[in-house]
Design goal:
- The protein is mainly α and 120 residues long.
- The protein has one domain.
- It is 49% helix and 5% strand.
- It is built from six helices and two strands, in the order αααββααα.
- Strands 1-2 form a two-stranded antiparallel sheet.
- Strand 1 and strand 2 (69-71) form a beta hairpin.
- The longest helix is centred in the first third of the chain and has 12 residues, at 4-15.
- The structure holds zinc ion (ZN).
- The site of zinc ion has 6 residues, from helix 4.
Length: 120
């Protein structure tokens, strides 16, 4: 799905209530698009781990406008599945596709200098 609004429409159809009951959750999950404009932004929150982070942000359940409690994790899972052909990727699967760069792992000399700078 291209837009968080469509995920919210899908949530309302599946779980009841109105799309706006779910909009904030889907906006949060797609908020990483503000830093990376193509589909790779999904590596940040569209994973098993991202689903649990979303639950920590919004709580275990939300109450929709029909008065029904819906687990946030189930809503987040719906979002990720809709963006990945039914699959929920793990963080490992996302990270596996990222090439290693030298800056990702500090050099021993940098670490030594850092430790010396904070030694008492
Ligand atoms: Zn998305």
């Amino acid at each position: 799905m291209a837009h968080s609004f469509h995920h919210a429409q899908s949530s309302a159809k599946r779980f009841g209530g109105e799309p706006q009951d779910y909009q904030a959750i889907h906006d949060f999950m797609d908020s990483s698009k503000s830093t990376y404009a193509d589909f790779r932004h999904r590596a940040i929150l569209h994973s098993t781990f991202g689903i649990f982070i979303t639950e920590q942000v919004f709580g275990v359940t939300i109450t929709n406008s029909d008065g029904k409690k819906i687990p946030v994790r189930i809503i987040a899972e719906q979002h990720v599945r809709e963006d990945h052909n039914g699959k929920i990727p793990t963080v490992e699967e996302w990270l596996h596709g990222i090439p290693m760069e030298a800056w990702m792992n500090p050099s021993p000399a940098f670490q030594r200098a850092l430790m010396e700078s904070i030694a008492e």
